[in-house]
Amino acid sequence: MLQSPVEFFRTLPKKVCPECGEHIQEQAESYLFECERCLANKEE
Predict the structure, then answer these.
(1) 23 domain-assigned
(2) Model pLDDT, residue 15
(3) pLDDT for the residue numbered 18
(4) For residue range 6-37, what is the model confidence (pLDDT) as tens digits?
(5) What residues make up the domain containing 25?
(6) 8 belongs to a structural domain
(7) Which helix (H) or strand (E) element contains residue 7?
């Protein structure tokens, strides 16, 4: 039986920053793979 699209997206695991392991709060149209703190540290 196929899962409804709503249920599919609801059950996806949260995105995790590969640098520090912190959960990334996703936003619509966001393709970030690292958290904002790690991105800011790389810019310095």
Answers:
(1) yes
(2) 87
(3) 92
(4) 999 889 888 899 999 998 887 767 777 888 89
(5) 13-43
(6) no
(7) helix 5-10
Residue 2 within any structural domain of the chain: no
* Residue 40 to residue 44: CA distance in whole angstroms: 7
State the pLDDT at residue 39. Answer: 87
* 5 falls within a domain: no
How far apart CA 15 and CA 35 sit, in angstroms, is: 10
Count structural domains, the chain: 1
Record the tokens describing residue 31, joined without a space: 């393709």
Residue 35's nearest CA partner among 10, 43, 20 is 20
Task: List the one residue out of 28, 23, 22 whose CA is nearest residue 9.
Answer: 28
As a whole number of angstroms, the distance between CA 2 and CA 19 comes to 35
